[in-house]
Amino acid sequence: MTAETISLAELRKHQPRFTGLSPGHRACQGCGELLAARLVTEAAGPDVVVANSTGCLEVTTTSWPDSAWRVPWLHSLFENGAAIASGMEAALKAQGRASKVLAFAGDGGTFDIGFQALSGMIERGHNVLFVCYDNEAYMNTGVQRSGSTPVGAATTTSPAGKERLGKRHLKKDILSIIAAHHMPYAATATVAYPADLRHKVRRAIEVEGPTFLLVHSPCPQGWGHDGSRTVEVARLGVQSGLVPLIELERGAVTGVMPIRELRPVADYLKAQARFRHLFADTAEAARELQHLQALAEHNIERYGLSAPGPEPRDTEGADTVRRGGQHWA
Predict the structure, then answer these.
(1) How would you classify the pairing of strands 246-249 and 252-256?
(2) What average pLDDT does the structure give for the chain?
């Protein structure tokens, strides 16, 4: 069949048959979090229930009296999303229902405020997929720094100035903390590689027990880039090594996305206004840039991200459409 003979009806057959999140929400243009949530719900399917912590995803999709959700959805507080999801899972189990529980939270409700409940959920072994949409700050309340904010990034509570070059502390290594729980499955993903993200959601849905997915989700407003560049910026994060895409089972690394064409960290940082102070002509700025480059190189060595040669699932091949219009996922 040639491109000229493909009908609109035929094309629609190849589109996702279900999405748990409808158009009409109030998110900013180019919002990485809403794109990530749509991709996750498409991959998870209709037989799910959602617990959603306070944050951008919650306020933009449920402005009274409207809702963009097409699956059973429950609002939880910043700090107790995992606890609410645990109760939902226990109730479904008591009813003999097999619907999967999804818990959604931002980095504030995962790395910081909500971590105690998340740790308890994993320890107790609840059959819940916890998804963190990581936009690296408290975006919903004014772009304050969080435990996920990268070192050197400027936020409203870690401003760049004469005394300091943005945030002083390293981004919390949440995945290592999660891995220490020896849970069945955990992974990182990004909106830059939808097929990889869908593959990991489906893998997590199949697992009986607690699973965790960390989705890197650029925020145009908080990061300072045009909304049209969200996927481009996210991809640069992966290609530089600052955002490793990996899978873990019982704490051990079982899969990585290799980097075919390594990009300097500066390419990723230059695309965002929150790092522009690092390109000032000063010794302090140069040292911080070197520090961030060293962090990326550490990730590359730690997880073996260097690709020996072109691979179908590396950073250049992961979302390539193959014969028949199919992705590898």
Answers:
(1) antiparallel
(2) 93
